[in-house]
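Note on ligand handling. Small-molecule inputs were canonicalized before submission; formal charges were left as drawn, and no protonation-state enumeration was performed. Where a ligand contained multiple stereocentres, the stereochemistry in the source SMILES was retained. For zinc ion, this procedure yielded the string shown in the input block below.
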Amino acid sequence: MENSPTDPVVYAGILKTTRRRRKFLFITVLIYIPALLVIHKISPTDRAMGTLFAVWVVFLIISTVLVALCRCPRCGNYFHMHGITLLVLRKCLHCQFHIASNNIS
Ligand SMILES: [Zn+2]
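Structure output:
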């Protein structure tokens, strides 16, 4: 609780960033199969598929790290991390603060 902001504008901004990063992760996960089908139509070679996979893995790593480093505006801990476990849930894993909440208390 010692690092938590009390200004509603600050924690609303933190929550907005968290939601944007979560959306980026979910889009990255969901876009793989459609992108695979599109690339297969354009160039059905192993090299093209491998390149797509490598690019997708890079985006997946980036989006996962960004989501993992989101801080909870109420308790100041990592929102989606508890120990080494990453769980992309809608509530903080430490204080149960909901991602869509407008009230920090
Ligand atoms: Zn929290």
